[in-house]
């Protein structure tokens, strides 16, 4: 196989010979041929999509599709619209709705429904869909007239609750007598190969020639301009303050999320190149890059088949997953700030995202970043009081919110923050104290768990301040919770329910007065 691996070293003639050699290896030839066909099809489809434009004709005799989505950050929503376009291009009538807008009548009148739903928290519905789950999904309905399919979005980072909300929708429809078109499909982190299965299953069930759909992710280029350790001598893992700058105007709002394309360390790439005996400077013709550059964001842990050229190698290597971080600053500060704690697996290797940002990327290096609008965590625009609750790196999302409040001169702000030790882990102490001194923070409660014998966390502080909390809520306060779902956010949720009652907490959620950015 070695000459095949090395095919591209020796120029086109040798590559041609390598290709002929490949013909002698049936399996290799077949995969190459299929990749070629797939590319050709994609090109044709793109062209067709461009030409289809407004000239879409809907078949008046076709049965309409109801497409419903439950989405937090917009991926399910985007897929719902893509699915709709795809069906419309095959002349099918469609209606797209968020699940919170679905009524009992919608379900009774529809003959076929596609549900695209993501999972949040620990197996929960997206915030806006929780009412749908509690009300409509709790109603017993006869849906025996209805055909359905479910696309469940989730992340395998949550193995125990992977796509569980989608599966609950499936179970509910089944129990209501609806007929499944095909088994529920799962999408891991917006993976396009998973989405392709949805496309295929839908095409098969409808016998339609459907347009391929995929999720587009377009990243902007930022540079790392500062990286400092926030917690020297901490009992916890190192947490960093990262500052990034873009070379052009950028906009985001307090509460938004930065999605980062993760990458490989130079050492990791060199090991991979050595293993397959490829020279780092080998050109990738289609990309005008060296192979070393092209591998920066590829998953180098997958099994690789013999390859005839660099394109063929790259085709086999999926892009590494992205990671999300709450943005800790507002645009007027001129930097995009992130707070990232190093994660380690049991083998002591740094996590994909945290290793990339806190160790592999060097100062001034490029970072591929995409700002994700996350409306459910945006700041209210009026001067109602806000209560910001979080611990650890959860301070990030709260910092951006308070910065924005200070800028608007709204002072009814209550911060409840927790970490391990005041001496080592009081993130952004100077800024927070300056806010206190200028009366921009009306209240502050700090929970440093290791500064006394018994562990004190933010939910304890909240319980201590139950009366104050009730007062703030009576004064229309909006509650923001940012940080870890395991522990903090769950404990805070329980404390809020104990203090305010389950109905009030549910009402706050529905009214957009209980907002969470939890991970
Ligand atoms: C805070 C948070 C919690 C999540 N919890 C889960 C979970 O419990 N199970 C799961 O399968 N996916 C979970 N995910 C992954 C999302 O479901 C996944 O990113 C999905 O593609 C998002 O789709 P959306 O943009 O339509 O909301 C979680 C993601 C975040 C940010
Ligand atoms: C955050 O609070 C939870 C308890 O609610 C605790 O388990 C966790 O260790 C805390 N994290 C930090 C960094 O203080
Ligand atoms: C719940 C919510 O408001 N989600 C929004 C997050 O951001 C995307 C856009 O990126 C919107 O489409 C979602 O509606």
Write the layout of secondary structure elements.
Blueprint lengths: L1 H4 L5 H13 L2 H27 L12 E6 L4 H15 L4 E5 L5 H6 L2 E7 L11 H5 L12 E8 L9 H12 L3 E2 L4 E4 L3 H15 L13 E10 L9 E8 L10 E5 L4 H10 L7 E2 L4 E2 H4 L15 H6 L6 E5 L9 E6 L10 H9 L5 E7 L13 E6 L3 H14 L4 E7 L2 H4 L3 H9 L5 E6 L9 H7 L1 H9 L3 E6 L1 H16 L1 H9 L3 E5 L1
Parallel strand pairs: 1-2, 1-3, 3-4, 4-5, 4-6, 15-16, 15-18, 16-17, 18-19
Antiparallel strand pairs: 7-8, 7-14, 8-13, 9-12, 9-14, 10-11
Helix pairs in contact: 16-18, 18-19
Bound molecules: flavin mononucleotide and 2-acetamido-2-deoxy-beta-D-glucopyranose (2 copies).
What is the third-level CATH name, the topology of the largest domain? Elongation Factor Tu (Ef-tu), domain 3
Q: Low-confidence segments, ≥5 residues, pLDDT <50?
A: 1-12, 24-54
* Broad shape: globular
Number of helices: 19
Helical fraction equals 25-40%
Number of domain modules = 4
Q: What is the chains' assembly state?
A: single chain
Largest sheet, in brief, is: 6 strands, parallel
Q: What is the typical, i.e. mean, pLDDT?
A: 89
Structural class category: alpha/beta
- DSSP strand (E) fraction? 15-25%
Q: Termini, distance in Å?
A: 45 Å
CATH superfamily of the largest domain: Translation factors
For the record, the CATH architecture of the largest domain stands as Beta Barrel
Tell me the Rg in angstroms.
Answer: 26 Å
């Amino acid at each position: 196989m070695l000459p095949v691996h090395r095919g591209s070293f020796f120029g086109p003639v040798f590559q041609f010979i390598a290709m002929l050699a490949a013909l002698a290896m049936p399996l290799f030839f077949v995969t190459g041929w299929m990749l070629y066909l797939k590319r050709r099809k994609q090109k044709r489809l793109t062209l067709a999509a461009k030409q289809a434009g407004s000239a879409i004709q809907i078949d008046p005799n076709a049965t309409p599709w109801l497409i419903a989505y439950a989405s937090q950050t917009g991926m399910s929503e985007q897929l719902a619209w893509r699915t709709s376009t795809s069906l419309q291009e095959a002349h099918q009538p469609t209606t797209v709705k968020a699940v919170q807008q679905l009524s009992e009548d919608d379900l009774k009148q529809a003959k076929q429904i596609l549900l695209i739903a993501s999972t949040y928290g620990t197996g929960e519905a997206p915030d806006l869909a929780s009412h749908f789950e509690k009300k409509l999904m709790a109603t017993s309905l006869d849906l025996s007239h209805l055909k359905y399919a479910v696309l469940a979005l989730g992340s395998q980072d949550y193995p125990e609750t992977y796509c569980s909300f989608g599966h609950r929708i499936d179970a509910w429809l089944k129990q209501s007598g609806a007929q499944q078109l095909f088994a529920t499909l799962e999408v891991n982190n917006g993976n396009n190969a998973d989405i392709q299965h949805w496309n295929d299953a839908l095409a098969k069930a409808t016998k339609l020639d459907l347009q391929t759909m995929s999720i587009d992710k377009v990243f902007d280029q930022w540079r790392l301009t500062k990286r400092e350790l926030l917690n020297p001598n901490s009992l916890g893992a190192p947490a960093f303050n990262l500052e990034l700058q873009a070379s052009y105007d950028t906009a985001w709002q307090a509460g938004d999320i930065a999605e980062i394309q993760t990458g490989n360390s130079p050492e990791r790439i060199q090991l991979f190149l050595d293993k397959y005996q490829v020279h780092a400077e080998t050109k990738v013709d289609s990309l005008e890059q060296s192979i070393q550059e092209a591998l920066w964001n590829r998953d180098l842990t997958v099994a690789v088949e013999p390859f005839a050229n660099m394109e063929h190698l790259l085709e086999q290597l999926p892009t590494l997953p992205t990671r999300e971080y709450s943005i800790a600053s507002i645009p007027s500060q001129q930097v995009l700030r992130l707070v990232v704690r190093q994660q380690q697996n049991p083998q002591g290797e740094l996590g994909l995202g945290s290793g990339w940002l806190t160790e592999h990327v060097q100062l001034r290096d490029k970072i591929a970043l995409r700002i994700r609008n996350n409306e459910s965590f945006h700041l209210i625009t009026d001067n109602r009081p806000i209560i910001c609750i979080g611990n650890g790196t959860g301070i990030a999302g709260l910092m951006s919110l308070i910065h924005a409040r200070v800028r608007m001169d709204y002072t009814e702000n209550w911060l409840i923050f927790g970490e391990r030790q005041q001496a080592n882990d009081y993130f952004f102490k100077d800024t927070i104290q300056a806010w206190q001194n200028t009366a921009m923070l009306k209240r502050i409660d700090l929970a440093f768990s290791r500064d006394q014998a018994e562990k004190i966390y933010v939910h304890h502080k909240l319980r201590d301040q139950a009366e104050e909390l009730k007062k703030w809520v009576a004064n229309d306060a909006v509650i923001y919770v940012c940080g870890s779902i395991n522990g903090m956010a769950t404990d805070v949720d329980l404390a809020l329910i104990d203090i305010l009652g389950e109905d009030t907490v549910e009402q706050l959620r529905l009214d957009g007065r209980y907002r969470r950015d939890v991970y």
